[in-house]
């Protein structure tokens, strides 16, 4: 098995309103591998500003943040591997006992999987996909923002093909966007663009009459967030709202999780590849990973969300959730994806190292902290969490069709608890 080693870098940025720290560690590898990693770090260090004159920033009324210059630590940190061969079977019995308790106490509904390397050690389904059909290990769930790791990997494939440049400004793809000349592809990937979030801050981002009309149609609805399913959303309408919105801060000046960044990355994938986003993901990510049931279309056989959403399968308009969160998958397909990605079957070592190099805890489509590479996803009635422990080659996946208790925290909490039970 080809192992992937990575320097998980500390990128420390301090601003007047935001201070976040990402921890990092690495097992010592060969000098050649370290040089690959250092080369990637050096490329990021070469970019010290946004090439924007101060007066042009003031003209755009972009709030200025005083950002202290940060440095990447390029020396590897010695970290002792835990001996996963010594993980006793009782550990997996504890996992099952924990999830059984969760199912009883808070009506946990969903699926969980634990694997060491290529070997699945534990997998079990809980609860109901709908009112009269139980969840199984092949039931599909909306994975929401876990889609972002697919989008980021697709961008890096195009970078490898010299079809996309991480440090090019996005006016190449969106010539009508006022701030396109000061935002880079890298800043979209790292959530450092300053663009408002069209999903979580719809009432801030949406400025066009058409979008406001759609939102108003749902305002008195018991489930206001059902507007994501409206058939009137289109890429053209989202871009129209983008052109009407202001920035929160100077691009590169701070971290702010934003779905709009990955929506735009999906459009860049289409322009750079000549394929639709769905076609590109199917051909270049799903097929190489051996993914067979995942897609970007909701089906009646999918699990139904319980909690904040109305009864029924979530059928978010794919034009709306798109590259930020529109994949439907089952737990085995997600495991296939994570193995293919982390084993080197999707992107090159250099691209992988860039994706998992964290600034303020976020890389490219992935959160990276203390050797754990992960992402969460939440949409009406669903939440999920994928974790890869790079030091111990452990994969943990939890997918739930319930957010009635703590919402996004459910799956993240469950994966951290499971990890604590098996890694001593």
From TrEMBL:
InterPro entries: AmpC-like, Beta-lactam-related, Beta-lactam/transpept-like
Keywords assigned: Signal
Presence of keyword Signal: yes
Statement: the UniProt record of this protein carries the keyword Electron transport: no
Signal peptide: 1-22
Pfam family of the protein (one): Beta-lactamase
Domain Beta-lactamase-related: 102-406
Domain of life according to the entry: Bacteria
Protein name: Penicillin-binding protein 4
Native species: Clostridium disporicum
Upper classification of the organism: Bacteria, Bacillati, Bacillota, Clostridia, Eubacteriales
């Amino acid at each position: 098995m080809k192992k992937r080693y990575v320097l998980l870098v500390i990128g420390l940025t301090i601003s007047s309103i935001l201070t976040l720290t990402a921890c990092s560690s690495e097992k010592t590898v060969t000098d050649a591998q370290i040089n690959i990693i250092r080369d990637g770090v050096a490329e990021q260090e070469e970019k010290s500003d946004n090439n924007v004159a101060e007066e042009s920033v003031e003209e755009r009324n972009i709030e200025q943040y005083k950002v202290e210059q940060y440095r990447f630590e390029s020396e590897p940190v010695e970290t002792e591997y835990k001996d996963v061969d010594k993980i006793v079977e009782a550990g997996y019995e504890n996992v099952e006992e924990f999830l059984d308790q969760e199912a009883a106490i808070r009506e946990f509904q969903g699926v969980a999987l634990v694997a060491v390397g290529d070997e699945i050690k534990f997998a079990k389904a809980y609860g109901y996909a709908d009112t009269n059909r139980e969840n199984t290990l092949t039931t599909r769930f909306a994975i929401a923002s876990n889609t972002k790791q697919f989008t980021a990997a697709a961008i890096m494939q195009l970078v490898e093909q010299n079809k996309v440049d991480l440090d090019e400004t996005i006016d190449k793809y969106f010539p009508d966007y006022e701030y396109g000349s000061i935002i880079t592809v890298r800043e979209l990937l790292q959530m450092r663009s300053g663009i408002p979030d069209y999903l979580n801050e719809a009432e801030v981002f949406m400025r066009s009459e058409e979008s406001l009309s759609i939102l108003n149609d749902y305002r008195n609805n018991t489930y206001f967030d059902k507007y994501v399913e409206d058939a009137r959303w289109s890429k053209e309408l989202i871009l129209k709202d983008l052109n009407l919105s202001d920035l929160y801060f100077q691009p590169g000046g701070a971290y702010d999780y934003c779905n709009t960044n990955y929506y735009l990355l999906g459009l860049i994938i289409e322009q750079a590849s000549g394929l639709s986003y769905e076609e590109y993901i199917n051909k270049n990510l799903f097929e190489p990973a051996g993914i067979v049931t995942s897609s970007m279309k909701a089906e009646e056989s999918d699990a139904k969300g319980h909690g904040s959403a109305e009864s029924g399968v979530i059928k978010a308009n794919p034009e709306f959730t798109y590259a930020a969160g529109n994949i439907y998958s089952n737990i085995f397909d997600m495991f296939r994806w994570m193995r293919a990605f982390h084993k080197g079957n999707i992107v090159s070592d250099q691209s992988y190292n860039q994706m998992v190099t964290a600034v303020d805890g976020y890389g490219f489509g992935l959160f990276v902290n203390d050797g754990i590479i992960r992402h969460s996803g939440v949409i009406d009635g669903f939440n999920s969490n994928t974790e890869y422990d790079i030091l111990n080659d452990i994969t943990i996946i939890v997918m739930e069709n319930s957010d009635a208790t703590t919402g996004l925290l459910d799956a993240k909490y469950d994966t951290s608890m499971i990890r604590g039970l098996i890694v001593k």
